[in-house]
Design brief:
The chain is mainly alpha-helical and 264 residues long. It has one domain. Helices cover 71% and strands 5% of the residues. It has a two-stranded antiparallel ribbon with strand order 1-2. It is globular and about 45 Å long.
Length: 264
């Protein structure tokens, strides 16, 4: 059976393909030209903020307490929380990878239905600012650095401030065309980083005893961490698939769930 993308989705699909091609091209070139890595480094740190924000938000929603949020210069991050029960612990540990995927998919839907790119850039700037100020700065100080170091605090604040300023500046000063591209680029980078991180945690869970979210899940349930990695991968694939289908659906059909996503 032959399929084609809905007619009114083609401009958004083109934007997504361009953003994806540039993202993959930059990743490929960075392996041969180290300086290229500096271009994607801020986005990598942004994706880490989104990942750790997922943990922090899940912690608050389950009635627990965030002790600190730390983003490191190597692109890793940590959220320490208190009061985790079994169920809330499972949600908190899963919220990093799945939260990053959900954020990327949400950006796809935002672009698809023509909502303001500036609004989502302002929201992203505000999210990073709040996470940096409340959980990256105030929480560690309130808890007397029980779960954070001065170095970790400094980099979290610096990177959070730079990302906030950068996102705010793009939202305020960029033309609509470039604001739209920035949102598409962030969506692609979040999804690619989520997949990349899941692949990494798969190898870590298989060949290393390093502390990861999957290790937390294994300790809480007795189910091997690699099983949880496959579960997260499966859920992420479903989320991305649904996001891409929404991206291709006709706006006139969006209100009718019985219609096919694609046109014959």
């Amino acid at each position: 059976m032959k399929y084609k993308v809905a007619e009114d989705a083609r401009p958004q699909i083109y934007l997504l393909l361009v953003a994806t091609a540039i993202s993959i091209g930059l990743w490929f070139l960075s392996a041969y030209i180290p300086l290229i890595g500096y271009l994607t480094y801020p986005i990598r740190i942004f994706a880490t903020f989104i990942h750790e924000s997922g943990h922090a938000v899940a912690t608050i929603l389950t009635g627990n307490s965030v002790q600190s949020l730390t983003v490191s210069s190597d692109g890793s991050g940590e959220v320490y929380s208190l009061g985790n029960g079994l169920f809330s612990g499972l949600l908190i540990s899963s919220a990093g990878y799945l939260g990053t995927t959900a954020f990327g998919v949400g950006l796809l839907a935002w672009i698809r239905f023509g909502l303001s790119s500036r609004t989502v850039l302002y929201f992203s700037a505000a999210l990073v600012a709040v996470m940096t100020a409340v959980f990256g700065f105030l929480a560690p100080i309130w808890n007397l650095f029980a779960t954070s170091t001065v170095g970790g605090l400094a980099f979290t604040i610096l990177s959070g401030a730079i990302l906030t300023a950068g996102l705010f500046t793009i939202a305020r000063c960029a033309s609509l065309k470039w604001a739209n591209f920035a949102v598409a680029f962030l969506a692609v980078q979040c999804l690619l980083n989520a997949v990349y991180d899941l692949v990494n945690v798969f190898f870590i869970s298989t060949f290393s005893s390093q502390h990861t979210d999957a290790a937390n899940m294994a300790a809480a349930t007795g189910i091997p961490g690699i099983v949880w990695v496959f579960i997260w991968m499966g859920v992420s694939i479903v989320m991305i698939s649904l996001g891409l289908r929404v991206y291709a659906i006709s706006k006139t059909r969006a209100a009718n769930a019985t219609d096919s996503v694609f046109e014959d």
